[in-house]
Each structure stands twice: as C-alpha cells, then as structure tokens.
Amino acid sequence: MPVSVLSFAALPSRSWGSNSGRAKDLATGPASPSGTPGWRLSAATIEKSGPFTSFEGTDRITVPVEGELLLLNVDGAEHAMERLRPLRYPGDVPVQASLPTGEVTVLNTFVDRNSYGAAVMVVELSKKNPPSLGPDQFLVLLQGSAKAVLDGGSRTEDLELLDTVAGGEDRPQVLGRGFAAVVSFYPLD
Questions:
Q1: pLDDT the model gives residue 2
Q2: What CA–CA distance (Å, rounded) separates 38 from 160?
Q3: pLDDT means per 10 residues in the chain (189 residues)?
Q4: Residue of 19, 24, 45, 84 with fewest CB within 10 Å of its CB?
Q5: What global pTM score does this model have?
Q6: Alpha-carbon radius of gyration of the chain
Q7: Exposed, middle or buried: residue 78 (CB in 10 Å: 0-12, 13-18, 19+)?
Q8: What is the pLDDT of residue 1?
C-alpha cells in the first residue's frame, strides 16, 4: 500500500450539526456490518456552543488542537478540555459543547465499538527519535514543523498543521519539532 500525505488544506469540508462548524475527514476504515465506516478520523471546528451529533454504537476520542478551552458535558459529567489532551467517551450519549474562550478545532476518532478500537497518543516530535507508522496508523501534525520521510527514506515531504501521514508496511517516519497525534485503529477479536 503506498504511503500518502494528506494535505489538510486540500481536503473538502462539510457542515456538521446545526451549522455548529465545519468538518474534514482525514481517513476512513472498511465498512462495519451496519454499512458505515468501521472507523473514521476527522478534524472539526466547533464554532458555537451546542450538542454534538450522536452516533449509535460508536465510541469517540476528541482532542482539542486549536483554541483555549472546550467544555464538554458528556452524559451529565463535565470535562474541561485543554489543548492536546484526549478524552474518550461513548458517541451515543448526550454531549453538549460550551466554548468559554471562543472557537475550538478538534481531532476526532469514531469507531464502531463492536468491531474496532482506537488509540490516540499526543507525542513530542524529535529529529533524533522519529515515530514510525505501521498499517492503520496515522500521524496528524498539531503544532510546530515536521517532515515526513517516505518510501524507505528516498522521499521527504514538508507537513503543514493538521496534515496527516498514513502509515504502511514501509513504516514512514516523521521528523520535526512540535507535537503530533499518533492515531491507531485496530480490529476487535
């Protein structure tokens, strides 16, 4: 499978919720038994306070990547979410977002909880110890500057904020300074 770098700026966006913001899909997995993708990785702006869309049978991980503070009320429990701190929660319970300091951009994972799992780790990038990405792993640049090392080291590509590097058998690496989210999806047995 060829490794690719997905330019965030070039991806199409769509409105979500009741015009609560814009979302871009970064990657989707194979169809689950319901016919929807078994997993999805996206980035979304939250431009106004209000409810999140409910996704039956889905688990989510949300990571604020731009903005100061996101308050999420998840099924009655309030979570004050600061930048680069993931929160895992069921996608089919009531979720209400509040924006005390203004608009926020988030990275989201969605998985069919009966078929797939996901893990999100925010890592500090380095030029000496770069993360390498296997199949069904993705790296999203959250802050700083970075370069993807592709095709076994024969090609490099500069990354912009929220660009995504898809992993593969040749295990691309990402060198740089700043922070990135390493997202892994895996089938449940």
A1: 53
A2: 28
A3: 80 89 95 84 96 93 96 97 96 96 96 95 92 94 96 91 94 95 94
A4: 19
A5: 0.93
A6: 16
A7: exposed
A8: 42
Beta-carbon neighbour count of residue 150 at 10 Å?
20
Q: Are strands 58-66 and 87-90 parallel, antiparallel or unpaired?
A: antiparallel
How far apart are the C-alpha atoms of 109 and 31, rounded to whole Å? 15
Distance CA 152, CA 178 (A): 23
Q: Is 132:123 a contact under the CB 8 Å cutoff? A: no
> Amino acid identity of 143?
Q
Q: How far apart are CA 141 and CA 160, in angstroms?
A: 7
* Biggest alpha carbon–alpha carbon distance for the chain: 51
85/179 Cα distance (integer angstroms):
12
Token duo for residue 1: 């499978």
Query: Quick one: tokens of 112?
Result: 């069919």
- DSSP three-state, residue 109: strand
